[in-house]
Amino acid sequence: MLDKTSYNNKPQGIEIAKITNRLEKSQVEIDINELADYLIHGCTFKPSVLNGKKETDWMEQQLFALDFDEGTNIESELNRCKELNILPCFGYTSFSHTHEHHKFRLVFCTHEPITEYDTAKQLQLTLMNIFNHSDEKCKNLSRLYFGGKDLIYVGFDNRINHKEIINKYSIEINISGHTEKKPHNNNYIYTNTINLVGLKTPIPEMNNNNYNIKAIRNRDAKYLKNKINNSHTILENNQAFFDYIFTYDLGKLLEISYPISFRCIFHDDNHPSAGIFQNDEGHYFYHCFGCGVSYNIINIIEMLGNFKSRPKAYKFIREIFNLEIQETEWQKEQKEILIENLKTLTNGELKENCPIAYNNISRNIKYLQQLLLIAIDNVYDEKLTDNEDNVIFYASTRFICEQLKMSPQSAKEVSKKNVLFQYHELLNKLDDEEIPENMLKRSQAIGANKEIKNQKHINYYSIPSYTTNSFKDIERQGVNWKNNNYTMKGLSREMFYRTEGLDVANKLYPQYKQIYSKEQKQVIDRTTTKSSDNRTSKIVKYIFDLIISKGYATENDIIKMMNTEYSKTLSAMQIKKSLQEILQGYDLKRIRANKQIKEQYGIIGNGYPFLIVKN
Ligand SMILES: [Zn+2]
User: Fold this and answer.
1) How far is the CA of 262 from the centre of ligand 1 (A)?
2) pLDDT digits (tens, 9 = 90+) for 59-105
3) What is the residue extent of each domain of the chain?
4) Cα–Cα dist 171/166, whole Å
């Protein structure tokens, strides 16, 4: 039920009463994406369908919302959704959300509308129990949810399986306090309380003779190796090792016969509070709702085996699974290059030798370090180099996001950061043509295996060794970046194309070199779009209008003049992409105003803005 009146702030008092009254007559058929759109424009909704206002008027429900007010943040709740594979169809921030205090809602959708009150209530309570930072008030199925500001997660096609969720995650939930509010007209199964304990899950006795757990505690690798009984497997690199062990069934390893609900082995547990779950990459996790631990296989081995050294834990894991990581001399050398690069970044050497370049990248340097670390685990045993003996490393942007525990929505940010480093010659992106065929096939096979949904394309990077020889190139690019007024915000193929031409743009964005032209009916070099050319000529016109009338133009002036035709964001973005080209083409310059310049142009007011003036 949706009230299409839009608010900018949280409605108060009488407004709420008005909304409630309007909502009563506002059953709508609506797509989820439309609903999300209404909500971020400040409209109010009730996830349930009611024949009135109260919970006793409940009829059916397909959407389930959770409200998060305090004690958590967006990232950790979304990670939890991912970890348990209970994905909302969208999430949005509420009116009072701030950067410091996250306030937001997640909305889940079931495959079919639920028409049994008990089931709907069970599902709502189970969801609240799984996401235990959610607001208590959500348990009321007739609750209304105000709109908010921004979408924080979108997966409109995501559906949750309510039977599975209730089955898997039901623990003691006493909703007896609500029975008097149950719908009077509900003809479905009527029980006084929905007692979820033992409803569907037997309470398994923790087997006292669980020899596998004992063996891990005693670090008895021989026993476990025999029990697991793997044939000897040679792995090429650490990533292959992680892929192997994270996808090994933890229930099997720990000999837990009922892995979806059992008594936790890490705390004194009277109820079956723990479960073993798989995320959407098939990785197994141990999670306990009682003590809150969330462990992967490495954590479990370290905790149970009381390992104080990670390499020793790895060695133990390799032994029990009969795995061997075989590194060739070649791989060792490649790793060494990457490790030396890391040192250059962290020991001040790059900063000292390339001060301007370093300044340009300093805010993102941590990302480069992480990328090098990922590359270290992914060095392959194939003597492949580009023509410069650089390390070749391949990964999809999605894979990089996963490794860095970033949401797939961050893919665009990751790609931008990569371009920043490419520009500074700290990283190269290879064109498909430069990649040896066998390697291309191999990565495509990996891509296909992992059923990568969004980011099918695997990118090939080559990472040069950061040496005294390369410092001057890195710094030269740093100076170019600075002189061209490049910013991360405007970063785009178009920005480089307009400023430095086709070759530079193609080098940084090899995958976007060409485009199919509908007009010419053939593949042509990608240049700029007509609409962006139009916006660019408008910008030029307004700059000259402003210079004629007062001697200078500022970006804000231009944006205001474009206001009738384009949004502020679009104008600002276009200026970032086109400005350098305009400055060069029309003999203009961009200067920072100082006191003297302000006097010269008669600028009053605080601040020292950037001015665009004639050269
Ligand atoms: Zn526990």
Assistant:
1) 10
2) 889 999 999 988 888 888 888 888 888 999 999 999 888 888 889 99
3) 2-181, 211-325, 348-483, 530-614
4) 9
